[in-house]
Amino acid sequence: MKHDRWLPYYLIAPSLLFMGAFFLYPFIQIFAEAFTSSDGNVGLANFTRIYQDFNFWPSLKNTLLLTGVVVPLQLVLAIGMALMVTKMNKGRDSILYIWTIPLGISDLAAGIIWLAILEQFGFLNSFLSAVSVIDAPASWLNYQNAFALFLAVVVAEIWRGTAIVLVILVSGMGLIPKEYDEAGQVFGASYWQRLWKITLPMLRPSIQSALILRTLLALEVFAVVMMLGGSDMPVLMSETFDWQFLYQQTGAAAAYAVLIMLISVVITGFYIKFLNVPKEAR
Predict the structure, then answer these.
(1) Where is the secretion signal located (predicted)?
(2) CA torsion 151→152→158→160, rounded to 10°?
(3) Deepest in the core among 32, 127, 145, 236, taking most CB within 10 A?
(4) 42 has which bridge partners?
(5) pLDDT at 239
(6) Beta-strand (E) ranges in the chain?
(7) Which of 255, 252, 262, 235 has its CA nearest to residue 58?
């Protein structure tokens, strides 16, 4: 009986050790380094340093702007795609497989793919030249064409990250009882009324999970931006990388990491509070 009582703790012990070694310890270490200056004093010196850096505000603006544009677009696209998939009788698995192919592609590989398409002598310019739309290859990915560069990153991120939102929403739609939709039809509700009054409210837990996950990933965007924009489009993660490996300033890099975490916590709290998922639906 004694062994039976301790069995659950034995089973979760490996997971706790893993979390402690690879999450809790690095988390504490990052916090300690963020609030410890190079001369050993505890304070906000590292945060002051990154705040005074000329790339701080551009990187913060670019990160928040990317998140604010990409995440809503991905949510709308994923809802539409999920609705299409759930209504299909034939070819559903094939279409879903094709749409989720980007899930198997790393961030860096996705950046290389879109770089090959959008660079000055890439596939897009070659095609536009072949059909006489442009006379000479255009340079889309530089600071002189900031809007085109931002749009390129948005398109690449939407292509790369919509699949994870789609998978979550398709799973959520599969849990909605068909009786609710059938009852709406009996009472004369139109398709759009059933969508707004039945499907989307019932899908709220999945939407909340998808928004939290995708927002966290969007705040940590790095490889795609580095491949397409490089230093012409700084983001918070690229600044973290530069301070750690280029400038060899671990404290400043840790301060950026803590800043990203704080923004993530605030946005996650916003989703949890204002999406207001009922307890019975959690």
Answers:
(1) none
(2) -170
(3) 236
(4) 36
(5) 95
(6) none
(7) 235
- Residue 43, pLDDT score: 87
Q: How far apart, in whole angstroms, are the C-alpha atoms of residue 225 and residue 107?
A: 10
- By three-state DSSP, how is residue 60 classified? helix
Q: Report the alpha-carbon distance of residue 282 to residue 277 in Å, rounded.
A: 7
Q: How far is the first Cα of the chain from the last one, in angstroms, to the nearest whole number?
A: 34
Looking at this protein, which amino acid is placed at residue 185? Q
DSSP state of 22: I
Phi, psi of 133 (to 5 degrees): -80, -35
Report the distance separating Cα 177 and Cα 183, nearest Å.
11
Estimate the share of the chain in helix, then strand, then coil, as percent rounded to the nearest 5. 80, 0, 20
Whether 204 and 279 have beta carbons less than 8 Å apart is answered as: no
Model confidence, pTM: 0.88
Q: Which tokens hold the place of 143?
A: 């600071």
The whole-number pLDDT of residue 127 equals 86
Q: Which residues pair with 50 in a beta bridge?
A: none
Report the pLDDT value the prediction gives residue 131, as an integer from 0 to 100: 86
- Compute CA 240 distance to the chain's CA centroid, rounded to the nearest angstrom: 17
Take residue 119 and report the two structure tokens written for it. 């660079």
DSSP 3-state assignment of 132?
A: coil
Predicted confidence (pLDDT) per residue in 180-206, tens digit = 888 888 888 888 888 898 889 899 999
Q: Tens digit of pLDDT for each residue in 220-252?
A: 999 999 999 888 899 999 999 999 999 889 999
Which of 75, 59, 94, 74 is closest to 222 using CA atoms?
Answer: 59
Owner of token pair 């799973």: 171
Q: What is the pLDDT of residues 34-46, one digit of tens each?
A: 998 888 888 899 9
Mean pLDDT of 21-37: 90
